[in-house]
């Protein structure tokens, strides 16, 4: 009886094709898996923070203004909220061990070619109060020292029609003063200081606090959760887009 079988060369060719296909698809699958892990962590961390913030708000009189009171220090405001969360490590107003430097990778049309923008500056700003929670996420809280009702005047960069920063004739970056009402800011790193990418929109999210509501600053946790998708530029430390 005649038997039909594959030759060794046919088997090797088939394995080679499988290897090539795997090499092409595996990085994308791994990246997607990592994004889904960070998305899952965001949902858990964001829910935990909002629950604690709302408990603090109800205790303090029903408005975010009373939790982020301009007369408070960042420590006082943080303690109002963190007592409702399970804190594993308390670094106070130091960054080391509790919060990594967080980066924002600008879009290509917003001076992105210049590289990374460090938006947290937590190591230089002792007004941030930083902790690591029992679930492994990090939370940083800062209290703005405005006047009554959290009135602040912000210096915002002036952009041209392409979204690039503008400079005067002496080479100084131009800013405009914009009044507004903001009481403070919270930074959540959903996977903690030891894990990357430490990038806004991926594993890190800013949440601004108004007297009577919250503001999604640069990142939008609400949109990310509702659309079940991370929104960030894949950008490496060598200054190139992936």
Reconstruct the topology from this structure.
Layout: H1 8-60, H2 64-67, H3 74-82, E1 87-92, E2 103-104, E3 117-118, E4 128-133, E5 138-143, E6 151-157, E7 175-181, E8 184-189, E9 204-209, E10 214-217, H4 221-227
Antiparallel strand pairs: 1-4, 2-3, 4-5, 5-8, 6-7, 8-9, 9-10
Class computed from helices, strands and strand pairing: alpha+beta
The radius of gyration is 23 Å
Beta-strand segment tally? 10
Oligomer: single chain
What does this structure look like?
This protein is α+β, with helices and mostly antiparallel strands and 242 residues long. The protein has one domain. It has four helices and ten strands, in the order αααββββββββββα. The strands form three sheets. It has a six-stranded antiparallel sheet. A hairpin with a 4-residue loop joins β9 and β10. It is extended and about 90 Å long. About 4% of the residues have low confidence.
């Amino acid at each position: 009886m005649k038997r039909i079988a594959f030759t060794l060369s046919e088997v090797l060719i088939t394995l080679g094709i499988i290897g090539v296909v795997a090499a092409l698809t595996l990085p994308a699958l791994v990246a997607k898996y990592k994004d889904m892990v960070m998305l899952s962590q965001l949902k858990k961390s964001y829910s935990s923070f909002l629950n604690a913030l709302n408990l603090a708000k109800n205790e303090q009189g029903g408005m975010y203004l009373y939790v982020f009171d301009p007369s408070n220090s960042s420590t006082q405001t943080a303690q109002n909220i963190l007592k409702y969360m399970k804190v594993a490590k308390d670094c106070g107003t130091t960054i080391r061990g509790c919060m990594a430097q967080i980066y924002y990778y600008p879009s290509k049309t917003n001076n992105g070619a210049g590289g990374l923008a460090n938006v947290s500056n937590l190591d230089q700003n002792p007004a941030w109060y930083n902790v690591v929670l029992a679930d492994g996420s990090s939370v940083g809280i800062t209290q703005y020292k405005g006047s009554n009702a959290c009135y602040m005047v912000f210096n915002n960069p002036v952009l041209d029609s392409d979204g690039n920063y503008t400079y005067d004739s002496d080479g100084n970056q131009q800013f405009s003063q914009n009044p507004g009402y903001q009481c403070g800011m919270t930074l959540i790193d959903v996977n903690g200081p030891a894990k990357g990418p430490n990038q806004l929109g991926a594993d890190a999210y800013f949440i601004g606090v108004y007297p009577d509501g919250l503001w999604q600053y640069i990142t939008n946790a609400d949109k990310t959760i509702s659309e079940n998708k991370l929104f960030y530029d894949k950008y490496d430390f060598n200054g190139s887009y992936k």
